[in-house]
Amino acid sequence: MKKLVPVPVSEEHDGRPGVRGRPGLSSLPPLSLYVHVPWCVRKCPYCDFNSHERKGNVPEADYLAALQADLEQAVPSVWGRQIASIFIGGGTPSLLSADALDQMMTMFRAYLNIPPDIEVTLEANPGTAEAARFQGYAQVGVNRISLGVQSFDDGKLAALGRIHDGAQARTAIEMAQRAVPRVNLDLMYALPRQTVEECERDLREAMSFGTGHLSLYHLTLEPNTVFAKYPPKVPDDDTSAAMQDLIVALTGEGGWSRYEVSAYARQGEQCLHNLNYWQFGDYLGIGPGAHSKLSFQDRIIRQARVRMPDSWMQRAMARDGSHIAEERRLRQADLGFEFMLNVLRLKDGVEGGSFIERTGLSIMSILPAMKHAVERGLLEPGLERIQATPRGWDFLNELQMEFLSE
Ligand code: SF4
User: Fold this and answer.
1) Ligand 1: which of 36, 37, 39, 40 to mutate, most ligand atoms within 8 Å of CB?
2) For the whole prediction, is pTM greater than 0.85?
3) Quick one: which of 238, 188, 249 has its CA closest to 216?
């Protein structure tokens, strides 16, 4: 993610056609709520998320008090807007007790306009203690569990530094399926020394549970992780490309369609929360390190909260706004790029009209870049849909860069 740098308002106008003045949004996009729970039992060596090792119990009472303070300060910016989905991510949210989740959900209902039956996802790890809580989570409103399985192979799980084994993953999946109607399994491929056959075994086992959603990620060695410092031996590009081809073929045969770069769903099982991100919708992120994108009639802003849990708790409780580490108004020059960065991840793209609807800009502002991308065979021609070609999807970075303003 790009570093957030505050920009002076005067930089808004960049002189290109269709971008004069402020964005004028005729309606605001759907608004999702993201809640960050920052603790994990142990930091995985490949992880670059805002997650912090926690010895002993999670400080639930302090965390919930700070979350409430954070939410109370955020409410004026989303006043009256209905929440479209809730995602409780981490970190390891399943370290929280069902009672803490109950308090959290009650708090959200008290402060926000939350219709009944919206998608409420909780990320969980397959440890036995956590799986025992799934029923309790379901009782307080969680209706989708996203399980960080990563692999069923004990050797690979150990190489990834995961604290669960394959047997615990299998048990947790069954417990999640009993507790909630919708389950996602996160699986990774191109793991240290993984062969195509091992990848296939993992995938087939994941598919055998018949969950509605699968998220299949390529392991990447991110900067500032243990793996970046001590890189494990990972499959070469040809092998990982063969794994990717196999994944697309097997999931397709099994009835999961790839609707986003890493997301595969059966019909009607797409993750609505993530879809809203990819359609350039709004989200309010609360909790340490959480990011927000919020639209107003005349501007769109991004915010990031203080990352370190203790510091975020202290600052949120001070109620002086200091828990917001960065806030910037999106420059009109960047809006086209940010929109495309998200929507082009979707296999079917979006309707052309959603560009003006979500950015407030005329499509003329990105027409030269669109034409160039069409000429290169990366973007489908026409203005009815904004959609990558199959080749554009294979070279998504290149396609997205077409829209980066100088
Ligand atoms: S469990 Fe997930 S969030 Fe926690 S350290 Fe491992 S990869 Fe990161």
Assistant:
1) 40
2) yes
3) 188
